[in-house]
Design brief:
The complex is a heterodimer of chains A (253) and B (386). Chain A is α/β, with parallel strands linked by helices. Helix content of chain A is 28%, strand content 26%. Chain A contains seven helices and eleven strands. Chain B has helices at 7-34, 39-51, 70-80, 85-88, 104-114, 234-241, 245-270, 282-310, 316-341, 352-362, 369-381; strands at 120-123, 139-143, 146-157, 164-174, 181-190, 196-200, 212-222, 227-228, 272-273, 276-277. The complex binds flavin-adenine dinucleotide.
Chain lengths: 253, 386
């Protein structure tokens, strides 16, 4: 089985995000960029499937600016076998919308015919949580979102999903789209020999035109603002005071 | 000229950085409080480093290392420099001098060291011989076909965990017009060899948990097979292999300075006095400007000296300059970072006082600042006959 893993280059989760002075977006100049953490979990899961003999090949795909090549190299250094970069923007500030990403991925999948797509449940930059679902709809494949456990069986996948009320176990027919959640696994560090080998693994570069997909935006961002600053907390002197404040100020009990 | 890192080098840096942040930082406070590295923590760090193929990455591939260039190794150590030395010690980097092992020494010392099965330490310094290495008193005399060693070494880092020690010992003396000059030989000495004891040394203000030990030789008998390099060739192996270790001090100083700087920078943007962030006072902001300038200068000086080694260019003066400048830069940066934090900078709730204490040794070990200045000036003046 071939596993396809889409990976996105996003602002590093450790970076303190700053909104641009003109409120058009987030300041990305000189900011550390990394692989979306949920995508790292997806890559790790794919590698584990391969190590367990359940997958033969792992293909990583990234859609974005040229620099997304670094993100793909990271996936290759972790253990993916080859990579496809779809250069869809020149400006690091351009975000390709989920529907365009899903259409491009569908085109790649039509060519590659993977048995499983493992993707992050969302990218930590825009928190859309949409690409996997849209892709499943475009392909007409089964989908299992928010996976915290994945077991591949004959022709199907048993997926434990993190839902609001607890855990839900479902069985989906393959081929399937599985979007992964935080607790699925802990991604490995790239080993030094794999870092050195990553350069030698194939990385194809394509454009949206190669797949006949239009990536022009359908959404307009009106304004980006900082979330309101949190107010400082207060110290309470006694349990009685705490209860009083929870009742009358916070109104939660 | 090109100042960028390759994709591989970027990945090496980011991998070691995450390793230090995730596997080293969480244990630092405990090591600092107790002065000990818990055995389980040490073993876990070592096992993970081995698994990632970073153990002994400074060794060539033919002996099982990763064959990193001097520049790449400096990048690894720069990231390691951010973390506690007591802990990063187990991100093993055996002494390169083990490449001088010959014949069965390779099976007994070099290869097990690279595989992480045996740990090493290196001993030159003695109570009466520090900067003046050749003034050492530890002496080996011939007895039959063997050597019998007597003397004391001190300040020997990592000897508490070492399975064997690389020891420099006097094996004779030549008369020269100026003064008698000792001949030095390098020996490999196993822990447990009769007549050889490793005992606790002093408590250092820098790098708690990274211990320095005292080695005692009392009629310690060694066969010729324990000689590393040639008899009386100690200075040759030293010059061939220990030349580059000063880059370690320089690059670790740079890594640590960057960690310290991040604390100073974010505190300047957060802490408010007189109704505004202290970073808005020029007295603070100009300090930050000077700090980052010095850190970058030390970084480039260090990487350039490592690069020269990779190019096979003479690098003795450049390495000495890097070691001198980076270690003195770290002292200024750690001091300024405390000043920027005010009183809180001194409290052990923050790591700044620790960085400040740790910085102190960098100007002393691997050749004091004075010795580096001596090397730098002699390289320039000797050719002029001065
Ligand atoms: C924590 C720690 C760990 C160490 N680990 C090791 C180790 O693992 N292995 C090992 O072999 N050694 C180790 N050392 C020893 C270290 O390399 C020596 O401390 C260093 O070389 C200086 O020697 P010294 O301390 O005897 O000082 P000295 O040489 O006595 O120097 C005293 C002062 O005189 C100055 N001075 C000396 N000669 C000159 C000169 N010619 N011109 C101008 N000034 C001069 C020095 O710069 C210094 O300021 C360690 C030291 C410390 C503190």
């Amino acid at each position: 089985m071939k596993v396809l893993v889409p990976v996105k280059r996003v602002i590093d989760y450790n970076v303190k995000v700053r909104v641009k002075a003109d409120n058009t977006g987030v300041d990305l100049a000189n900011v550390k960029m990394s692989m979306n953490p949920f995508d790292e979990i997806a890559v790790e899961e794919a590698i584990r499937l391969k190590e367990a003999g359940k997958a033969e090949e792992i293909v990583a795909v990234s859609i974005g600016v040229k620099q997304a090549q670094e993100t793909l190299r990271t996936a290759l250094a972790m253990g993916a076998d080859r990579a496809i970069l779809i250069e869809a923007a020149d400006d690091v500030g351009t975000d390709i919308e989920p529907l365009a990403v899903a259409k491009l991925l569908k085109a790649v999948i039509d060519e590659e015919q993977p048995g499983l797509v493992l993707c992050g449940k969302q990218a930590i930059d825009n928190d859309m949580n949409a690409t996997g679902q849209m892709l499943a709809a475009l392909l007409g494949w089964s989908q299992a979102t928010f996976a915290s456990k994945l077991e591949i069986e004959d022709g199907s996948a048993k997926v434990t999903r993190e839902v609001d009320g607890g855990l839900q176990v479902i069985k989906v027919k393959m081929p399937a789209i599985v979007s992964v959640d935080l607790r699925l696994n802990e991604p490995r560090y790239a080993s030094l020999p794999n870092i050195m080998k990553a350069k030698k693994k194939p990385l194809d570069t394509k454009t949206p035109a190669d797949y006949g997909v239009d990536v022009s935006p359908r959404l307009a961002v009106l304004k980006v603002e900082e979330p309101p600053a949190r107010k400082a907390g207060v110290k309470v002197g006694s349990v009685a005071e705490l209860v009083e404040k929870l009742k009358n100020e916070a109104g939660v009990i | 000229m090109h100042f960028g890192l390759t994709e591989e080098q970027e990945m090496i840096v980011s991998t070691v950085r995450s390793f230090v942040e995730n596997e080293i930082y969480p244990h630092e406070n405990e090591v600092e409080r107790t002065g000990e590295v818990p055995l389980a923590v040490a073993e876990a760090i070592k096992a993970k480093t081995l698994e990632l193929g970073f153990y002994a990455c400074n060794f060539p591939e033919e002996v099982g290392g990763a064959g990193l260039s001097h520049l790449e190794f400096a990048l690894v150590e720069r990231e390691l420099g951010r973390g506690s030395m007591a802990l990063t010690h187990f991100f093993g980097r055996p002494q390169n001098i083990l490449m001088a092992c010959k014949g069965e020494q390779r099976e007994r010392y070099l290869l097990p060291a690279v595989r992480g099965e045996r740990m090493d330490a290196l001993a030159m310094t003695e109570p009466d011989a520090g900067s003046d290495v050749r003034g050492m008193k530890t002496f080996a005399r011939r007895d039959g076909g063997d050597w019998v060693i007597n003397g004391t070494k001190h300040f020997i880092s990592g000897a508490d965990h070492a399975d064997f020690v690389i020891v420099f010992v006097a094996t004779g003396e030549d008369q020269t017009p100026k003064a008698p000059k000792k001949r030095i030989t390098c020996f490999l000495v196993d822990r447990g060899t009769p007549g050889f004891t490793i005992r606790h040394g002093y408590n250092s203000v820098s790098h708690r948990g990274y211990k320095n030990m005292i080695l005692e030789f009392d009629d310690c008998r060694l066969p010729d097979a324990q000689v590393l390099g040639e008899v009386d060739g100690g200075f040759d192996v030293m010059n061939e292999w220990l030349y580059a270790t000063r880059i370690t001090v320089a690059t670790m100083s740079v890594g640590r300075a960057r960690r310290v700087f991040d604390h100073a920078l974010s505190y300047s943007a957060e802490r408010k006095q007189f109704g505004q962030q202290i970073g808005k006072f020029q007295g603070i902001s100009f300090q930050l400007a000077d700090m980052i300038t010095e850190i970058d200068a030390a970084d480039w000086l260090t990487l350039a000296s490592a690069w020269r080694l990779d190019q096979g260019l003479p690098a003795n003066r450049e390495i000495a300059s890097a070691k001198l400048y980076a270690s003195e830069m770290l002292a200024r940066i750690t001091d300024a970072a405390i000043q920027i934090h005010g009183g809180m900078g001194l409290m052990d709730d923050l790591p700044l006082a620790r960085f400040w204490r740790d910085a102190r040794v960098e100007r002393i070990w691997d050749g004091t600042s004075e010795i580096q200045r001596h090397i730098i000036s002699r390289e320039m003046l000797r050719p002029l006959g001065a």
